[in-house]
């Protein structure tokens, strides 16, 4: 039985075709997206680009799988979290989607947090503290900055909800991705219409909020005309889908406590499954719901491969040459420290920060050291975040490493040494797409399908990617991390 998983990331859409009976990944493909970046932290994408990338990647993945597309039984969609896809009554976006990494709305977010009663008020009403990047402040910004577009809003969706809408015609949402809107109570798993009313008083919550469905419920079935166009069978089920981090957790087998999934994508994320809502006293921890029931407390940093790519491109290096420079420099990059906040930062909460290269001298200012220092800086940011997640992450036996950066052996070893925990990657290229395919099979399979059994069958680990922490390197990185923390304190006042 064949299933398809789709992951609409920041840089590309990836599609995977899986065969449940054989426990095999049959085909994978991806197509890139354009990102509109502007002054003041603007980061937007046209939802039509996601559809175009979806079509192309679906075509390529099915061709690589060498299967008859009519054999596909269900599709699951994972998407970058938080992006605001506001549709008009005809189902057209009223404005390009403002993305999770857009920091133009930092002032709106600060005002909203205050209006909700500060951090305590946010925790009380939402189960988490609003961060710049969550959907809420994008809506507040649209109201102020683009009133004509705002007036036409008929539905508020997230990127994966929008792809589900395109596939099925249904305007629905599920708890995992809805957690990141900022108008959803993550403990009670329900919309907070009163909070939406504080953000956008003119919008009728009954009308604009999509219908909430359970993680195991279908969003709908493929629209017949689209099924014909894509060469798929009529009646193909589309599962609820979810946020990319939620489906990345499923695709790495992180569906019970004990593991950590760490993503080196455009963003960096660390998350651990919890059967209980984890309302932390630390405002930086996002108490998100999982997309298979339960919760997925998470921290997210905004500058990971976006930052490393920036430095790589400044030097005109391809990925192989960048990897060589990384390996050539010693731990600590001979004293160079990078605070890679090119696009502001979410954890620590510095949405209006900019990046810094520190400690440069005539001797250490080499390509190799600068490449190494930006990768170390991005990884130290994740350690800072992991420390905030507390016991759930600290006690994990293994880190399941995903995202584009996980392809680098040097970076994998660095994660193991900086976090002091063994690391392994899944065999599939995009774990969120695999998680989406697994969720699709779980949804379509009815009562007999078990998520544990599906993960056991389909989540294969790449033994050759294993990296164990080495005591000498762990100690060396401790000193470099202390230097990074001093720089954070000195330049941004981040002490805790
Ligand atoms: N070997 C590598 N070393 C470092 N970065 C890499 C490597 N391979 C891919 N990447 C980077 O990974 C990024 C894409 O990661 P991905 O997880 O697909 O992003 P997203 O899901 O946010 O779209 C790109 O910036 C790419 O340059
Ligand atoms: O904002 C978050 C999580 O809260 C990001 O993790 C986005 O979900 C984007 O993910 P990638 O494109 O980096 O995979």
TrEMBL record:
The keyword Kinase applies. InterPro entries: ATPase_NBD, Carb_kinase_FGGY, Carb_kinase_FGGY_CS, FGGY_C, FGGY_Carb_Kinase, FGGY_N, Xylulokinase. It catalyses: D-xylulose + ATP = D-xylulose 5-phosphate + ADP + H(+). Residues 2-251 form the Carbohydrate kinase FGGY N-terminal domain. The record marks 7 as: Important for activity. The keyword Disulfide bond does not apply. Its EC number is 2.7.1.17. It is an enzyme of class 2 (transferase). GO terms for molecular function: ATP binding; D-xylulokinase activity. Keywords: ATP-binding, Carbohydrate metabolism, Kinase, Nucleotide-binding, Transferase, Xylose metabolism. One of its GO terms (biological process) is xylulose catabolic process. NCBIfam families: XylB. PANTHER family: SUGAR KINASE (PTHR43095), XYLULOSE KINASE (PTHR43095:SF5). Catalyzes the phosphorylation of D-xylulose to D-xylulose 5-phosphate. This is Xylulose kinase. The gene is xylB.
């Amino acid at each position: 039985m064949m299933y398809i998983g789709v992951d609409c990331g920041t840089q590309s859409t990836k599609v995977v075709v899986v065969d449940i009976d054989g426990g095999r990944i049959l085909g994978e493909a991806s197509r890139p997206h354009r990102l509109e970046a502007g002054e003041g932290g603007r980061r937007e994408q046209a939802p039509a680009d996601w559809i175009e990338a979806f079509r192309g990647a679906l075509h390529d993945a099915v061709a690589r799988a060498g299967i008859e597309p009519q054999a596909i039984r269900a599709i699951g969609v994972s998407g970058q979290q938080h992006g605001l896809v506001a549709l008009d009554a005809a189902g057209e976006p009223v404005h390009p989607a403002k993305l999770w990494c857009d920091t133009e709305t930092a002032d709106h977010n600060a005002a909203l947090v205050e209006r909700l009663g500060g951090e305590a008020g946010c925790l009380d009403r939402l189960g988490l503290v609003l961060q710049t990047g969550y959907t809420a402040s994008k809506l507040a910004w649209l109201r102020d900055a683009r009133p004509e577009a705002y007036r036409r809003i008929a539905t508020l969706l997230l990127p994966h909800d929008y792809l589900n809408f395109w596939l099925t015609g249904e305007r629905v949402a599920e708890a995992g991705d809805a957690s990141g809107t900022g108008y959803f109570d993550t403990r009670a798993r329900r919309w907070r219409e009163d909070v939406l009313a504080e953000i956008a008083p003119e919008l009728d919550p009954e009308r604009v909020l999509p219908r909430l469905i359970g993680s195991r419920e279908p969003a709908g079935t493929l629209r017949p005309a689209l099924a014909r166009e894509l060469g798929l069978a009529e009646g193909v089920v589309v599962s609820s889908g979810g946020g990319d981090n939620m489906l990345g957790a499923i695709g790495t087998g992180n569906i019970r406590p004990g593991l950590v999934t760490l993503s080196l994508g455009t963003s960096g994320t660390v998350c651990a499954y919890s059967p209980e809502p984890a309302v932390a006293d630390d405002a930086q921890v996002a108490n998100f719901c999982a997309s298979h029931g339960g919760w997925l407390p998470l921290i997210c940093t905004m500058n990971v491969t976006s930052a490393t790519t920036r430095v790589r491109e400044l030097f005109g290096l391809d990925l192989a040459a960048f990897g060589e420079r990384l390996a050539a420099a010693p731990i600590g990059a001979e004293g160079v420290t990078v605070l890679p906040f090119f696009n502001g930062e979410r954890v620590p909460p510095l949405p209006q920060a900019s990046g810094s290269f520190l400690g440069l001298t005539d001797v250490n200012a080499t390509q190799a050291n600068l490449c190494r220092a930006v990768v170390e800086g991005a990884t130290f940011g994740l350690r800072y975040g992991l420390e905030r997640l507390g016991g759930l992450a600290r006690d994990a036996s293994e880190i399941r490493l995903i995202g584009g950066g996980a392809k680098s052996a040097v970076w994998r070893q660095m994660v193991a040494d900086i976090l002091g925990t063994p690391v392994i990657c899944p065999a599939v290229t995009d774990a969120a797409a695999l998680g989406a395919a697994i969720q699709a099979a779980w949804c379509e399979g009815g009562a007999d399908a078990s998520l544990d059994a599906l993960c056991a069958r389909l989540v294969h680990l790449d033994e050759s990617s294993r990296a164990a922490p080495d005591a000498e390197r762990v100690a060396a990185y401790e000193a470099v991390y202390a230097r990074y923390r001093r720089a954070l304190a000195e330049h941004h006042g981040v002490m805790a």
